[in-house]
Amino acid sequence: MMKKEKQKLIIPFVGLKPGLHRFEFEIDSTFFEQFDYSIIKEGDFKIKVDFEKKKNLFNLNFKIKGKITASCDRCLEPLTLKVKGEESLIVKFGETTFNETDEIKVISPAEYELDLTNDIYQYAHLLMPTKVTHENKKDCNPEIIEQLYKLTTKQESKKVDPRWAALSKLKDKSE
Ligand SMILES: [Zn+2]
User: How far, in Å, is the centroid of ligand 1 from the Cα of 27?
Assistant: First the structure.
């Protein structure tokens, strides 16, 4: 079986004049499908990149806007989140990636294009909130919420709160 070719996000910088250039990328669910452990399964993003070509380095600024479809942590129904954010990146040339950080990327002097596939994949994930829920509780699926409520109250009634037990003893004595 042939492995699926990655949808790559590339800036071919070799022919560019020094100065500012604008690039735009659009990605959708098929972009995220090519990564085995993507948290985002469904999403559409538009990425605008201001790419400044300097003599020995590149300055990049990303404006990212998108929609992510995920399931609500409260009621498990799918919901769509609108997200946006900005990121910046400095690209330097070097033989080792030893000095790389989240903000500095090092590429070989032999490169003629800049591959931003993994960077943009990460930026999209940074925009994903840690908790995904419908904004208002009333937007959640009421049937599922009720089922979950029944489950948790069943579990809770099994445990007896020790403070409550102590109180009920006192109450017994006073009677
Ligand atoms: Zn919900």
Answer: 26
Convert the pLDDT of each residue in 85-96 to its tens digit: 999 999 999 988
Answer yes or no: do 89 and 145 share one domain: no
Q: How far is the CA of 2 from the centre of ligand 1 (A)?
A: 39
- Average pLDDT in the 17-35 region? 96
**How far is it, in rounded angstroms, from Cα 27 to Cα 29?**
7
DSSP designation for 106: E
Number of domains the chain is built from: 2
Residues 75 and 147 in one domain: no
Q: Report the candidate in 9, 4, 76 with the shortest Cα–Cα distance to residue 33.
A: 4
Where helices occur in the chain by DSSP H, the ranges are 29-33, 117-126, 142-158, 162-174
Range of the domain at 159: 141-175
